[in-house]
Amino acid sequence: MISGKFLAEAHELCRLGVAELGAGFAAGKFTPLEVTQATLARAEVVQEQYNAFSLIAADAALAMAKESTARWRSGAPLSAIDGVPTTIKDIVWVKDWAVRYGSRTTSSEPCVQDAPSVKRLRAAGAIFIGLTTTPEFGWKAITESPLTGITGNPWNPQTTPGGSSGGAVVAAATGAGVLHIGTDGGGSIRIPSSFTGVFGLKPTFGRVAAYPPSGFGTLAHIGPIARSADDAAAMLNAMAGRDPDDWNQGIGEPPPLALSEGVLKGARIGLWTNPAHGTVDEEVAAAIAKAARSLEALGAHIEPVELPGEDLTETFRIHWYAGAANRFGAVPKDLVSLCDPGFVEVARNGASIPASALVAAQLRRTAFGAAMEKLLAKLDFIVSPATAIPAFAVPPEVPSNVALDRSLYSSSFAFPINLSQQPACSTPCGLTAAGLPIGLQFVAARGADAKVLSAARDFERASP
To answer: Does residue 384 have an active-site annotation?
Structure first.
């Protein structure tokens, strides 16, 4: 039985970020093994309470931690994140682990290779704690799947943590790991980060290599989830870079991120408050207005802005539904009955989209992306609510129409930036009267990931 004293000490270790852990490792105050043991104990508690993991890989994590401890003791850590507990969304390949995509239809055979992001984190010495929960194939903005059931929000377990990186944000919010891989095809990092009060970044498309490619195509990004912009930056620096398996990345190696202070002073910021779909909750609107005043106090110049695109909701819907049809096509026909009915419905709707409609949507996306680049050549940042609504209640069985409707509401400030591929993050900016987190989104031009992280860090420091 785990002692109360151990749990208390573990709780304190689980509060630390990358810089604090590195300083502690270097000074010999504690070791990666001790931190990993604490994190695993925390993960077991979090799993029991909120169902955030599809796998807790204790033996593998402890073996990695012992190797990291030896490196730190010899003064030769591999990177700034050597020994830092890390989780991986159950949609990203990890060698020798069975990655199931939240689906009962997938193979339980272990992966034969790491995804590029995982390979880079492994080379940096990160400690892999386990796999975090996701809806089936990451298709919706709540985390509930036929394989793992419902994941609860630690601020109120009756509400959703959002999705599709729901398990990752719960692990981040509760100290069951410091760094967390998420994926974002329509807000799947930013929505749950907003709902649970953590930091999540969707990087510029292609900064982090993806393999196998997402069934949802070039909407999908891989990025970091953490409890601060600094920790997310450390993680992104470790896992970004080119990989020959990812043909979609384009050309050129992304330069290392270097965060700057004071980027908000004199910054030109467009305040985007009219969502692509639906309306904004009153408490969310009030929190964003307060955040805008804080940005002005930091020296930013703020003006209202509207996004330049037309039919953004329909453009995204066509891309997303067609992607779902593509992914559903790989499900064996004799296993279709095991799928999430909502996913099947969306996929079958996607299969009925004419090719001409998909091409027309792709052309609208191209025009929108170009217009966004021009807008962000005039502005340093766009800021908006990360989500139009706070976390909402999820019943024991989630009707597909509820999942679709609330997912679209949740993603109304998120999915346009998947269409245009700029870096965008969610950082906490307040709480509702019911005590649920609200997130502020920063967006900048493609390639300006360091600017987004720097702005979010300056805001964090001014509004802890």
So the answer is: no
